[in-house]
Amino acid sequence: VSWLCSPTRSEITSLDSGNIDDILNNADVALVNFYADWCRFSQMLHPIFEEASNVIKEEYPDKNQVVFARVDCDQHSDIAQRYRISKYPTLKLFRNGMMMKREYRGQRSVTAIADYIRQQKSNPIREVQDLEEISSLDRSRRNIVGYFEAKDSDNYRTFERVANILHDDCVFLSAFGAISKAERFSGDNVIYKPPGENAPDMVYLGSLTNFDLIYAWTQDKCVPLVREITFENGEELTEEGLPFLILFHMKDDLESLEKFQQEVARQLISEKGTINFLHADCDKFRHPLLHIQKTPADCPVIAIDSFRHMYVFPDFSDLSLPGKLKQFVLDLHSGKLHREFHHGPDPTDVAPGQPIQDLASSPPESSFQKLAPSEHRYTLLREKDEL
């Protein structure tokens, strides 16, 4: 009765394969609760999630401004698999149908969830009032600067949409009208200012109203193809749900890193989105090296961490052989590396570099596994810290 009589009650949208794309694509921001009914933490989150939705609905009454939705992962395992959901409950943020890399890991409280949504709705672009502000940018960051004749324009709306998605990876700034005129000698303009005081600017040359083009260009500048994994960002990278292809190298061995970056770009650009390309400092990550029976003296070393096992690329000197690195990754996706880990080389194959240790069953854990807590440990963390 109280549900029927409550005028502020907002309904959580249940997603299924028939409506998910339409609902998410039309939502400026959507927070989706991936849950399982048998999970008591999912049960505890339901009323909190609903109340947070009520609070936000009063502030953003337009149904497409903010959507709170849920997916029953037992009933819709295809959706859970599509978004690589493996633990419950998981809260994922979507913008115009695109899932953000970082899941919500804040407190499971009405206040915290509501504050998180307000933050997501805030303007990700800083408007500059004088071009002198551009000359004093923090050049340790990746900066994207847009120069526009008017804020009320299709060009700026596209720029704003891109910034909403990538603001965690780049700093976005804009200037308008007379302030930006000196930089608009050929029309509205978007420039990437990479890290480094002497790094040259890069100009976007495509259509400013073509979202796909400018998003792809900006993502390429804001998110390096090969990223460094550290103890600070390891858990965040793990949350993306993709296995790791890692180059372990000494910090001052930039030559090996450059070779790895070149071959990833040459052989594996089509695999972006199926595996994360990373590099790690051998000295800092001695522990995962130990699990594959390597030491910093063996670096550079290439390995795949699937979060179940680690597989070693046979020989770093084979890196530039055409298709060699790509086949290594394809063998992961096909299950060949996993199969050979347990049963030895396929009868028709010459044995590749043998995977050394089963991280899932061995008592020790690699540093990467510690950065990617197991389902059981993650549940305990949520019980203690979030619920």
Automatic annotation (TrEMBL):
Gene Ontology MF: a single term: protein disulfide isomerase activity
Gene name of this polypeptide: Erp44
Region (Disordered): 344-373
Thioredoxin domain ranges (all copies): 1-122
Classification via CDD domains: PDI_a_ERp44, PDI_b'_ERp44, PDI_b_ERp44
Taxonomy, superkingdom: Eukaryota
Pfam families assigned to the protein according to its UniProt record, in alphabetical order: Thioredoxin (PF00085), Thioredoxin_6 (PF13848)
Name this protein carries in UniProt: ERP44 protein
Ranges annotated as biased composition (Polar residues): 359-369
GO biological process, any: protein folding
Annotated Gene Ontology cellular component terms: endoplasmic reticulum membrane; endoplasmic reticulum-Golgi intermediate compartment
